[in-house]
Amino acid sequence: MFKKSSIPDSCIISFSLIGGLIVFLTFISLLNLGVTQAGDIPNLISVASESKVIDSVLLTMMAGLTAVILLLVTGIPLAYVLARVDFRGKGLVESLVDLPVMLPHTVAGILVYILFMRRGIIGGPLGEAGIVFEDAYLGIVMAMFFVSSPYFINTVREGFEKVPVHMENVARTLGATRFTAFRKVVLPLSTRHILNGCILAWGRAIGEFAAVIMIAYYPMIISTLIYYRFTTSGLKESSTIAFIIIVICLLVFAGLRYVMKYAGKYDDRV
C-alpha cells in the first residue's frame, strides 16, 4: 500500500524558501522595531497613553470604516454591473475604476482636493450647505474612499463573476426579479469576497497618507501624526507611534482573518 510521504516535495520547499523572503523581511523589520521599543517600556506607555495618539488612532479607524461603508453602498452595485453586463465603453469604466491603484498618492490627493475643496465642483455647493471637506473628517473619508475603491470593487466583482449566471436565471424563471435574484442568490454566495473586499479596502484606507494630507492635514490621522512627530521630535517618538499602530493593526487583521475562516464557507461550492 502506498504510504504518503511526510516530507514536502522539492517544488514546495523551493517555493517556500523563495516566498519566505517576503515574510522574513517583514518579520525582521518588526522584530527590530519591537526590540527597540521593548527596551524603553516607560516611553512606550507614555506615548501610547497620549490623548493625541489615541484620538488619532480612533479617527483613522473610524474614517476608514466610514469609507468602507460608502463602498458597500456604491461599490456593490458597480461591481455587479461590471460582472454581469457587457456594454460599450466598459473598458474605459474599468480603467477609471483601476486608476487610483496606478496613480501616485499625491496625484490622487490633488484629484480629491480639486473636487472637494471649498471652490470645487462638489465641495463648493456642499460648502454652502455647511458640509465642509477641507481640514475636516469628511475630507479624510473621501480621500480614503477614492484610493481604496479599486480594491473593494475588483474583489467583489470577482466574487459576483464566480456565481454561475444560470443560478440567477433559475431564480428568475421562478418569478424572482433581477434584484431579488441578486439579493437572495448572488449576494449570499459572494459573502466571502465582499468581506475580503472590505478588509482590503479598510487596510488600504487607514494606511493612506499623501492623498489625505492634500485635503485634510487636520485633524491628524495616524499617518499624519507619525510624519509630524518625525519632523518635529525625531525618530524615537515617531517609531513608538508606528509600533503602536502596527500592534493594533496586527490584532485587528488577525481577528478579521479568523472571522473570515468561518464567513461565507458555502461560497467554496461555487
Automatic annotation (TrEMBL):
<protein>
    <submittedName>
        <fullName>ABC transporter permease</fullName>
    </submittedName>
</protein>
<keyword id="KW-1003">Cell membrane</keyword>
<keyword id="KW-0813">Transport</keyword>
<feature type="domain" description="ABC transmembrane type-1">
    <location>
        <begin position="57"/>
        <end position="254"/>
    </location>
</feature>
<dbReference type="GO" id="GO:0005886">
    <property type="term" value="C:plasma membrane"/>
</dbReference>
<dbReference type="InterPro" id="IPR000515">
    <property type="entry name" value="MetI-like"/>
</dbReference>
<keyword id="KW-0472">Membrane</keyword>
<dbReference type="Pfam" id="PF00528">
    <property type="entry name" value="BPD_transp_1"/>
</dbReference>
<keyword id="KW-0500">Molybdenum</keyword>
<feature type="transmembrane region" description="Helical">
    <location>
        <begin position="95"/>
        <end position="116"/>
    </location>
</feature>
<feature type="transmembrane region" description="Helical">
    <location>
        <begin position="12"/>
        <end position="36"/>
    </location>
</feature>
<keyword id="KW-0812">Transmembrane</keyword>
<feature type="transmembrane region" description="Helical">
    <location>
        <begin position="56"/>
        <end position="83"/>
    </location>
</feature>
<keyword id="KW-1133">Transmembrane helix</keyword>
<comment type="similarity">
    <text>Belongs to the binding-protein-dependent transport system permease family.</text>
</comment>
<dbReference type="InterPro" id="IPR035906">
    <property type="entry name" value="MetI-like_sf"/>
</dbReference>
<feature type="transmembrane region" description="Helical">
    <location>
        <begin position="136"/>
        <end position="153"/>
    </location>
</feature>
<feature type="transmembrane region" description="Helical">
    <location>
        <begin position="209"/>
        <end position="228"/>
    </location>
</feature>
<dbReference type="GO" id="GO:0055085">
    <property type="term" value="P:transmembrane transport"/>
</dbReference>
<feature type="transmembrane region" description="Helical">
    <location>
        <begin position="240"/>
        <end position="260"/>
    </location>
</feature>
